[in-house]
Write a structure and sequence with these properties.
- By secondary structure, this protein is mainly α.
- The chain is built from 6 helices and 5 strands.
- A 3-stranded antiparallel sheet has the order 1-2-3. A two-stranded antiparallel ribbon has the order 4-5.
- α2 packs antiparallel against α6.
- The two termini are 29 Å apart.
- It comes from Amylocarpus encephaloides.
- Keywords: Antimicrobial, Bacteriolytic enzyme, Host cytoplasm.
Length: 141
């Protein structure tokens, strides 16, 4: 069983965006078992981690990295890579300022502002600005 995102695109599991209405490209039977849903989100997050790791050239702590992975999972690798957010980080602007100013801008669907995305971006800003004892660099996953 699939759902639709606010723009009417088919999704399954923990927010996987399907390329077809039936999500036929998913290598698991539908409805997804919890284990298959977990495998699918891990696969999707691996893609988002790789995107952020290749696009952001400044040192991030684990929480900053995690917030950006959450955002990239939601907006896609192409959008994150061409974003002002990534450009500003790579220009060595103050990371907390960049996150506070840029993440909230990503709260719209095709029909305008989405309250769920507004809440998600606010949570990502909080996570980004939360200190991490995990040193710098890309955290092991």
């Amino acid at each position: 069983m699939t759902d639709q995102d606010p723009d009417g695109h088919p999704t399954i599991g923990y927010g996987h965006l399907c390329s077809s209405a039936s999500c036929a490209e998913i290598p698991y039977s539908i409805p997804l078992s919890r284990a298959d849903g977990d495998r699918l989100i891990q696969s999707d997050l691996a893609v988002a981690r790789k995107c952020i790791a290749s696009q952001v050239r400044v040192k991030l702590n684990a929480n900053q990295f995690g917030a950006l992975v959450s955002w990239a999972f939601n907006v896609g690798c192409g959008a994150s890579g061409s974003s002002t957010l990534v450009k500003r980080l790579n220009a060595n602007e103050t990371p907390n300022t960049v996150a506070s100013e840029e993440l909230p801008r990503w709260n719209r669907g095709s029909n305008g502002v989405l309250p769920g995305l507004t809440r998600r971006r606010a949570a990502e800003v909080v996570l980004f600005k939360t200190g991490s004892s995990g040193g710098g660099g890309i955290p092991a996953c």
